Amino acid sequence: MKVGDAKPANFSGGPLLLVGFSFLLIIGFPRLAPDWWYFSIVGWLVLAASWGTSVDVEGWTLRLRYAFGRLAINVPLSEIEDVKVVSRLERAVLIREFPGLYILITASVLFVFLDLLLLPSGLLEGYYLGDIGLIFFGLIYLAVMSLPFSRTNIALLFGVLDLLFAALLMELKMGYVDPVSVLVLGIFGLLFVAEYYRKDYVVITTQRKKYSLMSEEPEAVLRVLLRGVANVQAP
């Protein structure tokens, strides 16, 4: 049985390892081995595969599907110890629940920022814009997922400030601000914020790990999970 509109997040376990591996391919290979730049394309595919596609309850097992539905993580309902909803206004709680995710993203942003600072002048603008884009989305991701913004417009204001910071980096490293790049970053940043403010999170704690589900109707997901756990525990 499909659990509503829930989709598993890549905040822990194997999916988080996929995120880390994708960052290595996207960020590391083009810098450590420039001739192998095409590995960064594989990295984007790995990153896409780390996102969940659906959540199902089959018998006494909760199945979290990733990698375009081809990879399933099986969570026995009998191992679930706690289930709770984390609203979009309480996302700072997720830092405590899934610290590995934030350590990974923060380290990646710092690495890319250092790389941008060390890039010499006179290179093709793609070298600079790639780093600036990663910094822009890394910062807005950390902010939206960590800070308990009470309203969407406050998050959008942070996005505008982040965009101005990206424009400043362009001016400092390229000598000018590319309006097309600013427009593209602004559009995708807006879509990013709008998408994440549509969903809340259901955090599942088991005997060994924690998992997170994204849903626009977390209460419905919570009812299904609690009903399944209750059925398993019933004599």
From TrEMBL:
<keyword id="KW-0472">Membrane</keyword>
<feature type="transmembrane region" description="Helical">
    <location>
        <begin position="12"/>
        <end position="30"/>
    </location>
</feature>
<protein>
    <submittedName>
        <fullName>Hypothetical membrane protein</fullName>
    </submittedName>
</protein>
<keyword id="KW-1133">Transmembrane helix</keyword>
<feature type="transmembrane region" description="Helical">
    <location>
        <begin position="101"/>
        <end position="120"/>
    </location>
</feature>
<feature type="transmembrane region" description="Helical">
    <location>
        <begin position="36"/>
        <end position="55"/>
    </location>
</feature>
<feature type="transmembrane region" description="Helical">
    <location>
        <begin position="126"/>
        <end position="147"/>
    </location>
</feature>
<keyword id="KW-0812">Transmembrane</keyword>
<feature type="transmembrane region" description="Helical">
    <location>
        <begin position="154"/>
        <end position="170"/>
    </location>
</feature>
<feature type="transmembrane region" description="Helical">
    <location>
        <begin position="176"/>
        <end position="197"/>
    </location>
</feature>
